[in-house]
Design a protein that fits this description.
The relative contact order is 0.10. Among the domains are: 50 residues, Roll (Ubiquitin-like (UB roll)), CATH 3.10.20; 95 residues, Translation Initiation Factor IF3 (2-Layer Sandwich), CATH 3.30.110. It is an alpha/beta fold and 241 residues long. Helix content is 42%, strand content 22%. The strands form two sheets. The chain has a four-stranded mixed beta sheet with strand order 2-1-4-3. Strands 5-6-8-7 form a four-stranded mixed beta sheet.
Length: 241
């Protein structure tokens, strides 16, 4: 009877890499580092575990790929806390660039375009890319020059802060352009993050809790209000036209 391919278990992906601790370490021998960072050499796993238990600590596998695997005697609860703290600090220092999509119609008036330019400038100053999308409805697609004019206006209104990453192009019933913050803007964003992290660490040492930073960026739902018609409306408009 053919066994065939082993069945895929999605839970295996969800589990991912897990650190083996104490009795979960099943190899016969391990290379051991004590709680002070001193190398104890290669020990039988049960002996290494006994040493850890005598100190009220855990035996933690820190390098499973070594031969034999390397384990360290430490407080696993404290170790997990420190690792979580390092991950959180790295995340805070990381600059995450999002693409903020601002939508227009060929009929969008000058007042609304200026409002959208102001919103785009704030997104750029925060280090985000901005994608302007002009969506055509019905016969509007026969006059792409109107969309081109609008995109020219928004590019001119943000050119001191941005570089064009993707020039205006047609995509089905839309015309889009993508702009990105200039390198000098990204440097300012990175410096602001570093300063904020320094202030957070200082407050932590002093036992103070800094208030959460307010979200000063405009809401995309407000910026795009009135520009979002569903596909059914577009299709019916095209049929009527």
């Amino acid at each position: 009877m053919s066994m065939g391919r082993p069945r895929f278990d999605p839970r295996q992906q969800q589990r991912g890499f897990q650190i083996r601790v104490n009795h979960r370490i099943r190899v016969p021998e391990v290379r051991v580092i004590d709680a002070n960072g001193d190398m104890l050499g290669v020990l039988q796993t049960h002996e290494a575990l006994r040493k850890a238990q005598e100190l009220g600590l855990d035996l933690v596998e820190v390098n499973p790929k070594a031969e034999p695997p390397v384990c360290k005697i430490l407080d696993f609860g404290k170790y997990k806390y420190e690792e979580k703290k390092k991950t959180a600090e790295a995340k805070r220092k990381q600059t995450v660039v999002e693409i903020k999509e601002i939508k227009l119609r060929p009929k969008t008036d000058d007042h609304d375009i200026n409002f959208k330019i102001k919103a785009a400038r704030r997104f750029l100053e925060a280090g985000h890319k901005v994608k302007f999308t002009v969506r055509f409805r019905g016969r509007e697609i026969t006059h792409p020059e109107k969309a081109q004019e609008q995109l020219t206006v928004v590019i001119q209104g943000t050119e001191d802060l941005s570089n064009i990453e993707s020039r205006a192009m047609m995509e089905a019933r839309t015309m889009t352009v993508l702009i990105a913050p200039k390198p000098t803007i990204m440097q300012k964003v990175a410096q602001a993050k570093i300063q904020a992290e320094k202030e957070r660490q200082k407050a932590e040492k002093e036992g103070r809790i800094l208030p959460p930073e307010p979200d000063s960026l405009p809401s995309l739902s407000d910026v795009n209000k009135g520009e979002e018609d569903d596909d059914d409306e577009d299709d019916s408009a095209g049929a009527e036209a």
